[in-house]
Design a protein that fits this description.
CATH topology of the largest domain: TIM Barrel
CATH class of the largest domain: Alpha Beta
Helix content: 25-40%
Number of domains: 2
Strand content: 15-25%
Strand order of the largest sheet: 5-6-7-8-9-10-11-12
Largest sheet: 8 strands, parallel
CATH architecture of the largest domain: Alpha-Beta Barrel
Order of helices and strands: EEEEEHEHEHEHHEHEHHHEEEE
Shape: globular
Radius of gyration: 21 Å
Length: 327
């Protein structure tokens, strides 16, 4: 098979993958999907710490800021994903399972987890789910019975008020998510909570922190996340966008509220230069490397390589307070 860049002559009789823009960025061990038009999609990068499989593109929520808008119908991806996993390097340290909503594939989700457990015994699993399916006690039990050594289920919650959460996710599922969290806790599962911060959620961040402390003291991790401005978030941007600098007071209060009570709390996707110094040490380099960028304003910043940087979609929409930090 010939693999050609767009600058190379393509007069070959071989099966050809063409129009590759950055061939130098591929490494031995990467896994790519060859599309019918000869282009490729990179599905696994051997040098990346952020490899994931998409269990399904279907979802039972329609969150107003979802960066991956769901589809209604699709062919089951499980066989494809098992084949994809078989091509991963056996020393892969972490594998994500995402969507869509992964629990919509039912017991096939457990098949994927069991496969990873068997073939990647040192790998952690990060499962991104809205938690609704785990309101089914027996399904939560099935997940626990996979007995994976390092599985974390990360579940978003958007408000301490049921109707607000339901409005943001586009479904009346607040209490199912709560029941799901408690069922997972009964089986001593490792749970993370994720709060995406935008114009419709930032004002109640302090109340949200108090709600979490009082109702979910068992969670392993809480992450406050700067919004990714793509997908439905881009479509609804006027309703959602607020300069992240402008919600620092609420974010600081929420983060320190939990941290002072010995809860494990982080800030995802945020730039160090816009955060108050009191909470900079809670910021993590959380953006998947394949969509992570830095701006020209970051050049010369002494904390650049400790900073999360930006989603690629933020190149034209980001805080107007971005600046170099000199120590």
């Amino acid at each position: 098979m010939a693999v050609l860049t767009d600058t190379e002559v393509q007069n070959t009789n071989q099966l050809t993958v063409a129009n590759i823009q950055q061939l130098s960025e591929l490494n031995e061990g990467d896994v790519v999907l060859i599309n019918p038009d000869g282009s490729i999609s990179v599905l696994y990068e051997i040098q990346s710490l952020h490899n994931a499989i998409m269990a399904t593109e279907r979802c039972n929520h329609r969150c107003i800021m979802c960066p991956q808008p769901p589809i209604l119908q699709e062919k089951d991806k499980t066989d494809f994903n098992l084949k994809l996993l078989s091509l991963f390097d056996k020393n892969t340290k972490g594998i994500g399972i995402t969507g869509g909503e992964p629990t919509l594939i039912g017991d096939n989700l457990l098949v994927l987890i069991e496969y990873i457990k068997k073939h990647f015994p040192t790998s952690s699993i990060s499962l991104l789910s809205n938690g609704v399916k785990f309101a089914d006690y027996k399904y939560a039990q099935k997940l626990a019975l996979t007995m994976h050594r390092d599985l974390q289920i990360d579940i978003p919650i958007f408000s301490d008020i049921d109707t607000e959460h339901n409005r943001i996710v586009g479904a009346n599922t607040f209490y199912k998510t709560i029941y799901g969290l408690y069922n997972l806790a009964k089986f001593r599962q490792k749970i993370g909570l994720r709060i995406v911060v935008h114009k419709q959620t930032y004002k109640r961040l302090p109340q949200m922190a108090e709600f979490i402390y009082r109702n979910f003291p068992f969670v392993f991790h809480v992450a406050f996340m700067q919004m990714e401005t793509t997908g439905l978030a881009e479509q609804n941007i006027d309703e959602l966008w607020i300069d992240p600098y402008d919600y620092n007071n609420e974010l600081e209060e929420a983060v320190l509220n939990l941290a002072r009570r010995n809860m494990n709390v982080s800030i995802y996707n945020s730039q160090l230069c816009i955060l108050p110094e009191s909470i900079r040490n809670y910021a993590k380099q959380s953006i998947s490397d394949w969509k992570n960028i830095y701006l020209a304003e970051c050049d010369g910043c002494e904390l650049k390589w400790e900073c999360a940087g930006f989603f690629a979609s933020a190149e034209n929409r980001h805080s107007n307070k971005i600046q170099r930090i000199t120590i």
